[in-house]
Design goal:
about 5% strand; mainly alpha; 3 strands; 7 helices; about 200 residues
């Protein structure tokens, strides 16, 4: 495993160095790689989304039992945010399906990372289908301006499908400044994005 990690780091460093060399040789501006909005900006967008969800959940529901489920989701979110204040370490979140763990975990991760001055949040998920589902929920919560900050890195990822989906949803591809490939493509072999799901 260590050999694979070292090889991956070497390949990534070589690609970055080559890209920088040709950029300078051609007189092009600095690459967009690394020009991400900071985790506090992502946190701010997510806090707004979650405040809206909590306010909507506080309204009386037409469906029996939904008020209780919404109260539990709010409780889970509050507990996750409270634990984000803890020292760095290992954390687990065990919540039944439908309990709001996807967004509660992202809220925890961003709160915790910002509190401790970290630059990245990396989710390691065992199944490709769950990675794709989680990325979709994260992108929806962060909104169209920040959706490209969520990078999927797995064997079934199809760049063309992701770019089409982003275009259909009216999301920016962050192409430009002399780049031939949009941000998701540039970061597929790197961990530069603020949020990576693998």
């Amino acid at each position: 495993m260590l050999s694979r990690m070292i090889f991956s780091a070497l390949v990534d460093a070589d690609q970055l160095d080559t890209e920088d060399f040709y950029r300078r040789a051609e007189g092009k501006p600095e690459s967009e790689r690394g020009r991400w909005r900071s985790l506090p900006k992502l946190k701010q967008a997510l806090v707004q989304c979650m405040a809206k969800k909590v306010a909507e959940a506080a309204l009386p529901s037409e469906h029996p039992g939904q008020d209780k489920v919404n109260a539990e989701r709010a409780s889970i979110l509050a507990a996750a945010r409270l634990r984000a204040l803890d020292a760095q370490g290992l954390f687990s979140l065990t919540v039944p399906t439908g309990g709001g763990k996807t967004l509660a975990s992202l809220t925890f991760a961003l709160d915790h990372a910002v509190r401790h001055g970290l630059d990245h949040v990396i989710y390691v998920i065992p199944f490709t289908s769950i990675i794709e589902q989680t990325a979709k929920v994260f992108r929806g919560a962060l909104g169209p301006d920040l959706a490209s900050h969520i990078i999927e890195h797995h064997s079934a990822f199809r760049e063309d499908e992701a770019l089409n989906a982003m275009q259909m949803a009216g999301r920016p591809l962050t192409r430009g400044r002399g780049l031939k490939r949009p941000r998701p493509a540039l970061c597929a072999s790197s961990t530069m994005s603020p949020a990576l799901l693998t």
